[in-house]
Design brief:
InterPro entries: AAA+_ATPase, AAA_lid_NorR, CheY-like_superfamily, Homeodomain-like_sf, HTH_Fis, P-loop_NTPase, Sig_transdc_resp-reg_receiver, Sigma_54_int. Pfam families: AAA_lid_14, HTH_8, Response_reg, Sigma54_activat. Helix content is 45%, strand content 12%. By secondary structure, the chain is of the alpha/beta class. It folds into 4 domains: 128 residues, Response regulator (Rossmann fold, 3-Layer(aba) Sandwich), CATH 3.40.50.2300; 160 residues, P-loop containing nucleotide triphosphate hydrolases (Rossmann fold, 3-Layer(aba) Sandwich); 79 residues, Helicase, Ruva Protein, domain 3 (Orthogonal Bundle); 45 residues. The radius of gyration is 28 Å and the shape is flat. The termini are far apart. It binds adenosine-5'-triphosphate (ATP).
Length: 465
């Protein structure tokens, strides 16, 4: 029997959290009841049920997620999960159990209130005013159905030793997924070792992977443990696996099949216990078809596949990610916090990011440094975006100017203008073999202007790049 449906219940074993949360929710005009664990909530449910439950996940006794599931099956009010465990598995489990929102502790109290009000108003999270819980830098964020599916898969396979192949365009978060898989696995206390196959010259790759003995080749003065050995008991992340030379593919396949290997130049057979996660931005099946990748190796690596869609196919994540990156850049660089105006968020959300999450992250870091006000407006995005032809150099200019102003320099306009003139003039003169008239014509300036500008360069210094 339920008699009151207007109050908010908070379940958390941390009295401090309960207290401050209850305070702000009361200030916001809501009735609040506090509980120290899931059993207390269950007991109270016999007499009443709340308009909304905010629950911690890990509490003594029963797990908070069982409450989420119970609320869902009984059709009770919405549940918001709060947890210091921002790992994918917990997040994924919370949503799976039916939570409407997830607050990563420590959270901003205003954001918690906003989340509660949003849930009470039954507004889907993605269309409401954004509330971004601060998340650790390495957290894999996302609210889009595609990312929730990724979280679910990670949660499901992390506990097993199955090899995983992560695919997706550059910058979509493949390495972060590999780390999440490791951190969610029983191997989490053992090393996570990454090797970018494409970044290492092929002749060194074998010894990088398997190590070498002293004297194995010129320059091998000491015994060196390869990544396989370094990752013992843990996870080895092989990035850009599609670029692995065929000979090494054969060797890797043998190691994966037998679980044993020799160091380069070594006689001792080493038995490894390593979980392999591989990633590629390439179409591995196409490479197999083209004879560039061994089909049998692909089968070994591609036991479970996690596909990360490009950011343009999960636009609903852009605002969340952008706000997270902006906040963490400010924190990391000790800058005053900034926020996006709604219009700016909307504009960002419509962009295509060929460099995916990494490009978005870089954009936000730049904005944290160079946007003038504490609210970022669409006009601030102007020159920094992909697709703007002048993008590269105006970005550099912005950074230079921001730094110069921060250093208290004056007269930077003159210096910058001169540097601009000098650069254009020099390039044009080089292109026209020193012929001033042709260079001037190519630049669209008069010959006199060009001569004057060239003359002025001797008296002033251009900005350092
Ligand atoms: N879902 C996400 N949540 C938060 N940060 C993310 C997410 N996805 C990617 N990032 C961040 O974006 C950057 C690029 O991610 P990552 O290096 O994992 O991409 P990748 O797909 O492995 O790239 P590449 O193919 O170029 O190696 C990193 O700084 C990472 O922390």
């Amino acid at each position: 029997m339920t008699e009151q449906r207007s109050d908010i219940w908070i379940a958390d074993d941390d009295r401090g959290v309960r207290f401050v949360l209850a305070e702000v929710l009361r200030d916001a005009g809501l009735d609040v009841r506090e509980f120290g664990d899931a059993e207390e909530v269950r007991a109270a449910l016999r007499k009443a049920s709340p308009a909304l439950l905010l629950t911690d996940v890990r509490m003594p006794g029963e797990d908070g997620l069982t409450l989420v599931a119970e609320f869902k099956t009984k059709g009770l009010g919405p549940v918001i999960v709060m947890s210091a465990f921002t790992d994918v598995a917990t997040t994924a489990a919370a949503y799976r159990a039916g939570a409407v929102d997830y607050l990563a502790k420590p959270f901003d109290l205003d954001q918690a209130v906003a989340a509660v009000q949003r849930a009470l108003a039954d507004v889907p999270a993605s269309s409401a005013a954004p509330a971004v819980p601060p998340a650790p830098t390495h957290a894999l964020l996302g609210e889009s159905p595609a990312m929730r599916e990724v979280f679910r898969l990670i949660g499901r396979v992390a506990g097993s030793d199955l090899n995983v192949l992560v695919t997706g365009e550059t910058g979509t978060g493949k390495e972060l997924v590999a780390r999440a898989l490791h951190e969610e696995s029983p191997r989490r206390d053992k090393p996570f070792v990454a090797l970018n196959t494409a970044a290492i010259p092929s002749e060194l790759l074998e010894s990088e992977l398997f190590g070498h003995e002293a004297g194995a080749f010129t320059g091998a003065t000491r015994r060196h443990a390869g990544r396989f050995e370094q990752a013992e008991g843990g996870t080895l992340f092989l990035d850009e696996i599609g670029d692995m030379p065929l000979a090494l593919q054969t060797r890797l396949l043998r190691v994966l099949a037998g679980g044993e290997f020799y160091r380069v130049g070594g006689r001792e057979l080493i038995r490894g216990n390593v979980r392999i996660i591989a990633a590629t931005h390439q179409d591995l099946d196409a490479r197999v078809a083209a004879g560039q990748f061994r089909a049998d190796l692909k089968h070994r690596l591609d036991v479970v596949r996690i596909e990360l869609p490009p950011l343009r196919q999960r636009r609903s994540d852009i605002a969340l990610l952008a706000q997270h990156f902006l906040a963490s850049a400010a924190q990391e660089l000790h800058l005053p916090p900034k926020r996006f105006s709604r219009a700016a968020l909307k504009a960002i959300g419509q962009r295509d990011f060929p460099g995916n999450v990494r490009e978005l992250e870089n954009l936000c870091r730049r904005l944290a440094v160079i946007a003038p006000g504490n609210e970022i407006l669409p006009s601030d995005l102007g020159a920094t975006g992909a697709g703007s032809t002048a993008g590269g150099w105006t970005e550099a200019l912005r950074e230079w100017a921001a730094q110069a102003l921060a250093d208290g320099e004056v007269d930077i306009h003159t210096r910058a203008r001169e540097a601009l003139d000098q650069t254009l003039l020099q390039i044009a003169l080089e292109a026209h073999e020193g012929h001033r008239q042709h260079a001037a014509a190519a630049l669209g300036v008069g010959r006199n202007t060009l001569t004057r500008k060239l003359g002025s360069s001797r008296t002033r210094r251009p900005p350092k790049s």
